[in-house]
Structures are given as structure tokens and as C-alpha cells.
Design brief:
The complex is a heterodimer.
Chain A lengths: L2 H10 L1 H20 L11 E4 L2 E4 L8 H14 L20 H18 L6 H14 L2 H9 L5 H5 L11 H18 L5 H16 L3 E2 L2 E2 L22 E2 L1 H18 L8 H10 L11 E2 L5 H4 L11 E2 L1 E2 L2 E5 L3 H13 L3 H15 L1 E4 L2 E3 L12 H16 L3 H12 L4 E4 L2 E4 L7 H16 L5 H4 L5 H5 L3 E5 L5 E9 L4 E8 L3 E6 L7 E3 L2 E2 L5 E4 L2 E6 L2 E7 L1
Antiparallel strand pairs in A: 1-2, 3-4, 5-6, 6-7, 8-9, 10-11, 12-13, 14-17, 15-16, 16-22, 17-21, 18-19, 18-22, 20-21
Helix pairs in contact in A: 3-17, 4-5, 4-8, 4-17, 5-8, 8-9, 8-10, 10-13, 13-14, 13-15, 15-16, 15-17
Chain B lengths: L1 H7 L5 H22 L6 E3 L3 E3 L3 H13 L1 H20 L7 H14 L9 H29 L4 H48 L1
Antiparallel strand pairs in B: 1-2
The chains are: A alpha+beta, B mainly alpha.
Chain lengths: ~550, ~200
């Protein structure tokens, strides 16, 4: 039977012809319709004076992450700082807004840390804007006054609402400011940071009478104003995850300034392990150290019958409340602050109790392991933080499975230099989910971690080492790598310019030459301007070692 | 009765037994190999996934030529060993693997003669449709009932992608593949025969 005969026979069978045509159409359409995505460059090697620079040894960002950053910039539309706090909350998720602002900064700090020698207004404006929004009266109204609390209410506790009754807001706000200092070594927020650190320290190290006992633990250490070594979010409930933020901030500040704020956190860390663990070894989501006032008691459904006591799982009175988002949030920050053994153990327990594997390459977590997932906001946040925690703890396999699950229904696409995932498949929930899903991917794919941020570079890296301080345009500019290697005294940069772009390098006198993979780069493209070096690039993709 | 069952499973004589065992082995290995190939896909409205699912085509193709036992083996062991190999995870206590096994079992039950005959090809398509409908129902039951997933999450993240890729692959693509495979097998058989006669 020769080929011609087979073809003749094939054409005789109408079913075969019809189905083969359909097969060819579908197969080719999957190849044709899958968008061809522009990719970042492959990092190779550059040899300068017999010294080999392997570019992949240096941190780098993916093209998508930079495209997502550009979308974030457009979303926040950074133009008028005098007006930064007004009306802007409407572009954010309508609920849990304060967390979105805070965690966006935590992700951004990791992104900038991936190209640490590129620090310009392209980065700082976005930080400033978000910090201003967190501190806006709209945020205050939204977060505290609307649920029924007033300044008068807080005054009955003898403090302002941004004082020691509200670690959720103060913890996030101070860490956002501290990450600004950590990332840019700009001290403009430092006095506020120190005020909050002292306030926490004072709250945690005082001794009071609490629950008819003196607030001292077994080892004689003070348990602070609230008798548990932790600070509440509302005046009457403490959370492990919310307190992980100030505890992380204390250690970061100590690392930067040689102080010892972290000691005040130690009794609290022991306390929650003894008092806030459910029978399966999962952190309890909320412990009431006093009875809520009437306005909050009305809508809560997790109240214990006596106080102090853990919050309860609604409908399952025997079980303390647990939440996947709370456990994963706490685990990533405890890991990053150096409590690695504790975090690894808790992460293991979380995986056992919460994680569902739905296909061979997908996994997700419900909000509480006492119920199936009902696919609401808390479920989504649980998966987002599960995604972050698996990245932080380097659980590569589960990270990929959660990503596969999380992003499967949302096609991403490029619009110029902006990348965005389309969440319209989620319907109304999409508007809540859109900014979260988009910045989440950028966090997940940044080339740094919260743990890395705890290991600050020396001040000299910011004050005297070369860095890219400005560019004449950011349109179509993708800076994949920007790292000054202080040991080799070499600036590593990989970038893509889609317009003629001028880059200004600060602290870069006496440049010897700009080198590419194929030798020295055109010397007319750069000039020395005293302490600055100015490089002008035609559109194209470049990798340089600048000595 | 016993003879009927044995003949239904294609284990009643040496020759068909060879086909069953050979088909199971080759199919399972092919399933695992093709499972590691990532084909392009695109999303329709963010939910329906347009993609060719090669492994699932192997299940029904093997079932068509080697019968229900081989079809079940490829579906069940192929997917189970892929899961273990590629992710170290068994989903819903193997429930999903049984669903894949049943696709092969259902399609393999009737005996087909040559697939060049439109009648046989139509029979194969009808049986694939039946297997597909059984599979999507069981798939939902396993994920919601055994894996305790929510209905909304299962629908968005599992069901719609599974529904669209397996419909395209089983009902539209597999028939052409089977037709081509039929020719290849007969061509091979004839070649073998003429060689034997020649020597």
C-alpha cells in the first residue's frame, strides 16, 4: 500500500476527512492563537580583561514582573503628591484595602531589591504614594470609623486609635516606612518609624494586672499591657499574623541600626505557641483577651463564651478558629525574621491540614480546614499568602502548583510595556481580585525574598557605590539587571530600550569602559560628567559590564 | 458467563491476550511520555481551555484496538504513575485516576473491525461521547464529594478546562488518530506477513 493509495482511501472516508479537518483547525489554532510573548534576554557571559562575568550569577527580573510594575504605576497614576490621599482608594479593592496597600509595598521592596543598583523616581514615587494613601484620612475613615469606632471610643482605652490598641495599622504602616528606608536609605520617615517602635516596646515591656494576674510569664519576663506579649488589632483581640509584622520590623530595624528592639517580642512568641495553637498544631486565628464592645459583638460569629479565650469556628463550637491566610502570613514572616525552625514546622502542619491537590500539577487551600472552600475573598487571600509563603520557604514544588491553580483561568496579556492578568472570569469578585492577582505574580517572581530584605546591604552601597539614578524616559524601558558588584568593582546591567534612552549613573567617576559580550561597546555612547556617567542607548536589548 | 466476560475483556485467547498486555504496556508508557509534553493552549473567556490533551487520546485509542481491560489499565495506571512521577501526589485517593480508567473501559467494550469503515468510526465516536459524559459527571462527583472542593472553585478551576480539552480531544481529534493508527497497524501487519512469506 503506497502513500498515494492511502490518501485516496482517506478521501473516500467522509468521516475521516471531516474529523481530520477539524483536528487540523484546532491544533493549528492552539499554536496560532496562543499569544507569542516577548521574552527577556538570555543572560550570557561577558569577559573583561580575562575576568569572566557570568550574568546569571546576578539577580534579575522577568519581563512580566516589569510589565506588572508598569501596570501598577498606571493604576496609581502618580502625579500629584499634594492630593495623594484624596479619592484614590476607589482604584483599590473595596475591602481589605489596608492589607492590599501594605502587602503591595512588601512585594515592591522585593522587586526593587532584585535590581538594587537601579533606584530612581520610577520606584520611589510609587512607594511614597502608597505610604501616603495608607496614612490618609480616607483610610482611617474606612478602616476604623465606619465599623463603628470613634476616637472617643479609643480614648476610653487611654490612647489614640493609632496607638497600642491597633497593631494591624501601626505594624503595617511602620514596616512600609521602614522598607522605604531599607530600599533607598532615605531617612525621611525615620522619626515616625522610631515613634512606633518605642510605642510597641513600651506596650510590650510594661507590667500590668491582667485577668487578675500580674502580666509576667514563667521566666519572669513582662507580658506587657495586654498580658500576652502581643498587641491587639482591635482593643480586645490579638492575632499571630498581625504581630508578625512589628516583630519582623523590629529585627529589620535592629539589623540596620544596631538596636535591640526584638527582645520585647520574645515573650509574645513563646506565649502564642503555648496559648494560640489548635489541636492540629495550627495557629489560632484570633484570641480574645477581652469581651468586644456591643457594636462589634453584634456582627462577629466567632466569640468564645468566656474571656480571655480563643475565637471559635462558627458552627463548630469545639474548635478554635483557624485561617489559611493567617497561618501562611505568619509563617512567611516568622521564617524571614529568623525563627526558621518554628516557621518550617508550622508550614509542614499547614500543608498537612490545609492543602488540597486537585490535579497532578495544581494545588489550593481553603480558608478553614473545617469547611470546604466556598471560593470567597478569604479563600483567595489564603491562596495568595500560601503562594507567598511557599516562595519564602523555598517550597518550589507547592509554589508552582498553587501558581498553576491560581492563575489558570486568567489570561495575561501585554499592552505596550504593561502586562496584566484579566480577571473578568471571576465576575464581580474580579474587581476585588484584579489588583491582588496582578501584584501577587510580581511578588512571586521577584528575585528576592523577605528573608533577603532582612540582610541589609551596607550603607556604603547606597552612599558611594554607583547606581542608575535616573532615566530620561521609562516608556518601554525594561531594566532586567542592575547590580554593582563591590568586590569586582563592576556594574552589571541588562536592559531593553524601545526608544532612544539616556541613563544617568550616579557615583560613577573614572569609568574605564563599557563591555558587551562581543567586546568593548561604542565609546561615543557614553560620557563622563564629573561624578556621573551618562549612557545613551538606541532601541535594542543590551547586557553590559561597566568598569 | 465466564467465557463472555473473558472475551469481553480480550483475555480469552493467546493472541488477544498478547494485544491486551502489549497495548496496556505501550499505552501506559506513551501516556506518561505524552503527559510530559506541554502543548500550547488558549483560554476562551478565561474558563474554557482550547488545548489538545494527548494522553487522553492514548486512552481511547488503545481501548479501541486492545479492548476495555487495556483501556482501563492505560487510563488508570498511566495517570496514576504520571501523578506519582511528576508531582508525587495522588489526587482524591485515586478517584480521578479511576475516572480516566473508566473512559478506556467504556470505549473498549464493543469490538470494532477496521476503522476505515465509517460505521466503526461512528461507533467509536458514539462510545467516546458516552465515556466523555460519564467521565465529566464522575469528575465532578470525585472532586466535590471526595476531595471536598467547593462547587464554584471546581467549576472554574477544574471542570471547565477538563470539559473543553477532553471534549476536543476525545470527540474531535481521537477519531482521526484512530483512523491513521488503523492504517499504520495494517500496513505493519502486511509488511510482517510478506516478510514471513518471503523468508
Amino acid at each position: 500500500m503506497d502513500v498515494q493509495r492511502i490518501i485516496e482511501k482517506a478521501l473516500e472516508s467522509k468521516i475521516f476527512v471531516v474529523f481530520t479537518v477539524i483536528t487540523i483547525i484546532i491544533t493549528s489554532s492552539t499554536f496560532l492563537m496562543s499569544p507569542v510573548e516577548p521574552q527577556g534576554p538570555t543572560l550570557g557571559r561577558i569577559t573583561v580583561n580575562d575576568e569572566i562575568f557570568n550574568l546569571s550569577d546576578y539577580p534579575s527580573l522577568e519581563r512580566r514582573v516589569l510589565g506588572l510594575w508598569n501596570s501598577l504605576r498606571e493604576m496609581y497614576d502618580v502625579k500629584d503628591f499634594s492630593n495623594a490621599s484624596i479619592n484614590d482608594l476607589s482604584i483599590l479593592p473595596p475591602i481589605l484595602t489596608q492589607y492590599f496597600l501594605a502587602f503591595t509595598i512588601y512585594g515592591m521592596a522585593q522587586i526593587v531589591d532584585s535590581t538594587p543598583s537601579y533606584r530612581s523616581t520610577y520606584h520611589t514615587e510609587l512607594f511614597d504614594k502608597i505610604i501616603l494613601m495608607m496614612n490618609s484620612s480616607e483610610m482611617e475613615q474606612f478602616e476604623w470609623i465606619d465599623p463603628g469606632y470613634s476616637h472617643e471610643f479609643y480614648e476610653t482605652f487611654g490612647n489614640d486609635f493609632r496607638g497600642p490598641t491597633n497593631i494591624m495599622w501601626t505594624g503595617h504602616y511602620a514596616l512600609m516606612e521602614l522598607l522605604y528606608y531599607n530600599t533607598f536609605r532615605d531617612a525621611k520617615y525615620n522619626s515616625e518609624i522610631e515613634w512606633y517602635l518605642d510605642d510597641w516596646n513600651n506596650t510590650l515591656t510594661m507590667t500590668t494586672t491582667w485577668d487578675n494576674r500580674t502580666s509576667i510569664d514563667d521566666q519572669g519576663r513582662p507580658l506587657g499591657m495586654w498580658g500576652c506579649g502581643l498587641i491587639p488589632c482591635e482593643p480586645y483581640i490579638v492575632f499571630v499574623q498581625c504581630n508578625s509584622i512589628p516583630f519582623y520590623a523590629m529585627r529589620m530595624y535592629d539589623g540596620l541600626h544596631g538596636t535591640n528592639y526584638q527582645e520585647a517580642s520574645l515573650p509574645g512568641i513563646d506565649w502564642w505557641q503555648e496559648n494560640m495553637m489548635d489541636p492540629n498544631g495550627i495557629q489560632i486565628d484570633g484570641y480574645f483577651n477581652m469581651k468586644p464592645d456591643a457594636s462589634e459583638g453584634d456582627w462577629r460569629n466567632d466569640l468564645p463564651s468566656t474571656y480571655p479565650n480563643p475565637a471559635l469556628t462558627p458552627g463548630k463550637a469545639d474548635w478554635p478558629q483557624v485561617a489559611s491566610y493567617g497561618s501562611t502570613w505568619a509563617n512567611m514572616f516568622y521564617y524571614a525574621m529568623g525563627e526558621t525552625e518554628l516557621a518550617i514546622n508550622q508550614h509542614k502542619n499547614w500543608k498537612t491540614q490545609f492543602v488540597h491537590y486537585t490535579t497532578e500539577n495544581m494545588a489550593y487551600t481553603p480558608d478553614s480546614y473545617h469547611y470546604p472552600s466556598n471560593f470567597d475573598t478569604k479563600d483567595l487571600i489564603g491562596n495568595l499568602f500560601g503562594y507567598f509563603a511557599t516562595k519564602e520557604l523555598n517550597d518550589v514544588d507547592l509554589f508552582q502548583k498553587i501558581e498553576n491553580w491560581f492563575y489558570a483561568p486568567f489570561p495575561g496579556s501585554w499592552d505596550g510595556d504593561k502586562y496584566r492578568f484579566d480577571t473578568s472570569a471571576l465576575g464581580d469578585l474580579g474587581s476585588f481580585f484584579d489588583p491582588i492577582l496582578n501584584f501577587g505574580y510580581a511578588w512571586g517572581h521577584s528575585d528576592s525574598t523577605l528573608t533577603d530584605l532582612m540582610d541589609p546591604k551596607p550603607d556604603s552601597f547606597y552612599s558611594s557605590a554607583p547606581y542608575i539614578s535616573s532615566t530620561d524616559t521609562t516608556d518601554g524601558l525594561f531594566v532586567y539587571q542592575a547590580f554593582y558588584d563591590t568586590d569586582k568593582e563592576a556594574f552589571i546591567v541588562t536592559l531593553e530600550a524601545n526608544e532612544v534612552t539616556e541613563l544617568t549613573f550616579e557615583n560613577f567617576p573614572n569609568v574605564e569602559g563599557v563591555y558587551t559580550k562581543s567586546g568593548e561597546f561604542d565609546s561615543s555612547s557614553w560620557v563622563q560628567n564629573e561624578n556621573q556617567m551618562i549612557l545613551t542607548l538606541q532601541p535594542g536589548t543590551y547586557s553590559f559590564v561597566i568598569i | 458467563m465466564k467465557d463472555k466476560v473473558l472475551s469481553l475483556l480480550r483475555v480469552d485467547s493467546n493472541e488477544v491476550l498478547q494485544w491486551t498486555i502489549g497495548g496496556s504496556l505501550i499505552g501506559t508508557l506513551l501516556y506518561i511520555a505524552l503527559n510530559s509534553v506541554v502543548l500550547p493552549k488558549f483560554l476562551l473567556g478565561g474558563m474554557l481551555t482550547i488545548q489538545i490533551d494527548l494522553p487522553i487520546i492514548i486512552i481511547t485509542s488503545i481501548a479501541a484496538f486492545c479492548g476495555p481491560l487495556a483501556g482501563f489499565t492505560v487510563g488508570f495506571f498511566g495517570s496514576l504513575s504520571s501523578d506519582l512521577l511528576f508531582s508525587g501526589q495522588i489526587i482524591a485517593f485515586g478517584g480521578i485516576n479511576i475516572v480516566f480508567g473508566l473512559i478506556g473501559l467504556v470505549v473498549g467494550i464493543p469490538t470494532y473491525s477496521r476503522f476505515t469503515d465509517g460505521k466503526n468510526l461512528a461507533k467509536f465516536i458514539l462510545l467516546s461521547l458516552l465515556a466523555f459524559m460519564i467521565a465529566i459527571i464522575l469528575y465532578l462527583i470525585v472532586l466535590i464529594g471526595i476531595a471536598a472542593q467547593s462547587f464554584e472553585g471546581t467549576l472554574l478551576y477544574n471542570f471547565l478546562p477538563f470539559f473543553s480539552t477532553s471534549f476536543i480531544s476525545l470527540i474531535l481529534v481521537a477519531p482521526s488518530i484512530v483512523w491513521i493508527a488503523d492504517h499504520l497497524i495494517h500496513y505493519g501487519k502486511n509488511l510482517w506477513k510478506s516478510r514471513l512469506e518471503g523468508s
